[in-house]
Write a structure and sequence with these properties.
The protein is of the alpha+beta class. It is built from 6 helices and 8 strands; from the N terminus they run H-E-H-E-H-H-E-E-H-E-H-E-E-E.
Length: 272
């Protein structure tokens, strides 16, 4: 297997030396494929409109179809990390040639969920070659210390026995596990809600919460609301369509472009 680890790029972090805070930084950038195929967008808009009109009370959970994408991995980047992350992504042309012989396709069919209906998504089926490409990109980003949230998992049997990151090199990661990629396209996502209470009760709750926070390092989260299954049951086996993958992009979670989509920092073209 070819190894794509340019010596001019950022040296990987010693993952064992990362503090707990560094490992658990909230992601602010991600790698993704945009779902822009017009026929696919039509079906996503159909889902959006159907839920909005039939169950307006639950429309607040919907994701705007113009933002639809399939996430390949997330990461926390400081400002000075961004050029290196862009360079790394753009360096994978040889991996594309190795794994991709024809335009890769993502097919969306049926509905799934995470967290007991807190996230509702369209199931995504990806070609084997594209799955292999994504696996290697995730591993190499991980080995360089860029990727964190779905990639840094509890220590298990070392993942790196297949020479993606060669033994004896400066890029060797000796332990850890890269979690499997589970492609999906989010359709709905719960929002944390605060329950209305009287002023007196609110003051009591605030006082009690502050007292608890003084003795705890972890802030208490607001209760989450599950999305009722009946909202999307008519789409459980729905065929949304497909997307030909022509580009993988590094995107910002916090900044939008003029077209309303996530701000693009760089990308890897897949010209087949």
């Amino acid at each position: 297997m070819r190894t794509i680890l340019p010596s001019t790029l950022k040296q990987p972090k010693n993952l064992g030396s990362l503090s707990k805070t560094e490992r658990q930084q909230r992601p602010n950038y991600f790698l993704a494929v945009r779902l822009s195929n017009p026929s696919l967008q039509t079906q996503l808009q159909h889902f959006y409109k159907s839920v909005s009109e039939t169950f307006p009370r639950h429309s607040r959970y919907l994701i705007n179809p113009t933002l639809s994408h399939v996430t390949l991995g997330t990461m926390f980047l400081e400002k000075h990390d961004i050029p290196g992350a862009v360079d790394l992504l753009e360096s994978f042309a040889d991996l594309v040639n190795e794994y991709i012989q024809e335009p890769p396709k993502l097919t969306l069919k049926g509905i799934g969920n995470f967290g007991g209906n807190r996230v509702v998504f369209a199931n995504v089926d990806a070609s084997h070659g594209f799955q292999s490409l994504v696996r290697d990109i995730r591993v190499i980003f991980w080995s360089h210390g860029y990727s964190n949230t779905p990639l840094l998992a509890p220590r298990r049997v070392p993942y790196f026995g297949n020479d993606i990151v060669p033994h004896g090199s400066a890029f060797q990661v000796t332990s850890g596990h890269v979690m499997d990629w589970k492609p999906h396209a989010t359709l709905m996502k719960e929002r944390s809600l605060a329950m209305p209470v009287s002023v007196k009760k609110a003051r009591e709750q605030i006082k009690s919460s502050l007292a608890k926070l003084e003795n705890s390092e972890t802030p208490r989260k607001k209760p989450a609301t599950k999305i009722p299954g009946f909202v999307f049951e008519n789409f459980m086996n729905h065929s949304f369509g497909s997307q030909i993958v022509s580009r993988i992009e590094l995107l910002s979670m916090t900044v939008k472009d003029k077209d309303g989509y996530y701000a693009r920092l760089g990308g890897l073209d897949i010209d087949k």
